[in-house]
Specification:
This protein has 412 residues and is of the alpha+beta class. It folds into 2 domains: 3-53 and 275-410, no CATH class; 103-231, no CATH class. Helix content is 57%, strand content 17%. The protein has helices spanning 3-15, 18-57, 85-93, 129-133, 145-149, 159-166, 170-173, 211-219, 237-251, 267-310, 312-320, 325-364, 375-401, 405-410, and strands at 60-65, 69-70, 73-74, 98-113, 116-125, 137-140, 154-157, 177-180, 183-191, 207-210, 226-231, 262-266. Strands 4-5-10-7-9-8 form a 6-stranded mixed beta barrel. A two-stranded antiparallel ribbon has the order 2-3. It is elongated and about 105 Å long.
Length: 412
């Protein structure tokens, strides 16, 4: 069997019906393009979100009370009171993997000065919070331990708050007294801008105050809603979580058979969770795009049926001069695969081109969302389009190979 001759016959058959062949390829082209672009968007979103979280600090650790059932009633995190200030102090004193730790209170309200007011959030923390979250002071100073002990009504403003209340004038903000809800607070510092993340969170829309001020003067609670901490390094993330768990279990006097009444969340765990979610989303997008490939495959089957019908006499003539059924099958199968693979190659080129155009538009719009082309997705797309040609082209080719030569020659 001369496969080169069969390939030439398939090419000549495609050339003799250029427009019909192109329209048949179009479904494959659209499908492959969609698969590449969808996977690129999914991978780019995953990379951008992970990058934003890494900017916060990959060794950041959040410690929260864990919801439990009490007398058949499920208590939410906000109702739990298992974390105390002594827990935060123990983490600083009795651990070797924790560098900084801070109580973490937050409440939303209106920040007001004169006739200007904005909705924002105030965070009650200690003097180490800036190092934990990676904030820097643009002007002014951070409050001290004495400010925390004396429950002083002082605060630092994020840049967005300064823009809204003082028109961006940092010097005017320093020393001013604003009101948060009904509590007057003196501004002693302004934070450097961190900007907005890819998922739309504004890291500069905040007020930072001593945790005792927020805890006692605003929220009136005696427990900690959360503790934030940072480890000594990313490579010790697992050790840090284990050490925190051991210290807090000892603090809470939990026996070995008792479950933790707190939850330790590291950035590594969050990154893994986000990675799994984004991978699932990428697979979903790719699966939706694959519908176009199925439509393209149906188009190939349809056109091959038409081709077999049109060339029935040709099939009968080839059989009469010695072509066997297997050769006839291979002739039409090769034709289907050539159409499918040609559409796949054009689709890959189209997908890469459209991917570049979208990336350029995103850059011009100032978006940090990247477009990542996966070589694996291109290889898979090429394999799928080849498989599509074989799968949807086999049955019409089999029909052609089963024709009776005499009946085929008599066909009108």
């Amino acid at each position: 069997m001369n496969y080169s001759n069969l390939f030439k016959i398939a090419i000549n058959a495609i050339r003799s019906n250029k427009m019909r062949s192109f329209l048949t390829m179009l479904g494959i082209i659209i499908g492959i393009t969609a698969v590449i672009v969808m996977i690129s968007i999914g991978q780019g979103a995953k990379s951008s979100i992970k990058g934003e979280i890494s900017l916060i600090g990959s060794n950041l650790i959040n410690i929260l009370p864990r919801s439990t059932d009490e007398s058949g009633v499920t208590l939410g995190v906000s109702d739990m009171q298992s974390l105390k200030m002594t827990d935060c102090e123990a983490l600083l004193q009795d651990t070797k993997y924790i560098r900084y730790a801070s109580p973490y209170f937050s409440t939303s309200g209106q920040a007001i000065i004169g006739n200007r007011n904005i909705p924002t959030t105030i965070y009650g923390v200690n003097e180490d919070y800036l190092q934990i979250q990676g904030y820097e002071i643009a002007q002014g100073e951070m409050f001290t331990k004495e400010s925390i002990t004396q429950i002083e009504k002082v605060c630092l403003l994020g840049e967005s708050v300064v823009d809204d209340l003082f028109g961006g004038d940092k010097s005017a903000a320093i020393g001013s007294v604003i009101r948060f809800n009904n509590l007057p607070i003196r501004v002693i510092g302004v934070l450097k801008a961190k900007g907005s993340s890819a998922i739309g969170m504004n890291a500069d829309d905040l007020i930072i105050a001593p945790y005792t001020t927020v805890q006692k003067r605003m929220m009136a609670i005696n427990f900690l809603p959360m503790i934030v901490a940072s480890g000594i390094g990313e490579e010790f993330s697992g050790n840090t979580v284990d050490e925190i768990t051991a210290v807090l279990r000892q603090q809470h006097q939990l026996s070995p058979d008792m479950a933790d009444d707190f939850e330790v969340m590291s950035m590594d765990e969050l990154l893994d969770t986000i990675g799994q979610v984004m991978d699932t989303l990428t697979i979903l997008l790719a699966a939706i795009a694959c519908i176009s490939l199925i439509v393209g495959g149906v188009g190939i089957m349809n056109i091959m049926y038409v081709s077999v019908t049109e060339r029935t006499k040709e099939i009968g003539l080839r059989m009469s001069i010695g072509a066997n059924p297997h050769q006839i099958l291979m002739q039409f199968l090769i034709e289907a695969v050539v159409i499918s693979v040609s559409g796949g190659v054009i689709g890959i080129i189209s997908g890469i081109t459209i991917n570049g155009i979208i990336a350029l538009i995103m850059t011009m719009m100032g978006s940090s969302l990247s477009m990542i082309i996966s070589i694996k997705s291109i290889i898979v797309a090429f394999f799928v389009c080849s498989l599509t040609g074989i799968f949807f082209g086999w049955y019409p080719a089999k029909k052609a190979s089963n024709l009776n030569p005499i009946d085929a020659l008599r066909y009108e």
